[in-house]
């Protein structure tokens, strides 16, 4: 493996941190001990800038190139975004309808049946067509209440977990 640039981040397929590297786990490290790395990344990822600075935290995160692509949001170096789970709100749901199946038979029971014929609606009461006179019947509560549990769901693309590490030893990158 060629000598890395200080501050270079690489993926590793094993669970050990190689010599000259630090795990990208958001740890606070000593400026005095890792001075060259601090010169390059400063407190971009955290730390007090006096005694400590943080390495990037890529646990559970995908790296994203900084800048702004055409039609995309600007992304600053060190910025975090996104959420592991989301809860959809009503405005985020696509417009849709629910079918109501009806039949022409006269209702003879207070409990809804497949052959009941709805007539007029007044408030929360459905009136059924009945040749013997209209009888007010309340609709089954399950037919008119909200559905769903308003619970968050995972929002993650298929992934493969590897270890990210940042080099603290190696070649100091010269500015172009």
Briefly summarize what is shown.
The chain contains 2 helices and 10 strands; from the N terminus they run E-E-E-H-E-E-E-E-E-H-E-E.
Task: State the separation between the terminal residues, measured CA to CA.
Answer: 24 Å
Spatial shape: elongated
Q: Architecture of the domain at 1-62 and 162-175 in CATH? A: Alpha-Beta Complex
Largest sheet: 3 strands, antiparallel
CATH superfamily of the domain at 1-62 and 162-175: Phage tail collar domain
Give the helices and strands as they follow along the chain: EEEHEEEEEHEE
Q: How is the largest sheet built, in terms of strand order?
A: 1-10-2
Mean pLDDT: 81
Structural class: mainly beta
Name of the top-level CATH class of the domain at 1-62 and 162-175:
Alpha Beta
Poorly predicted residue ranges: 130-137
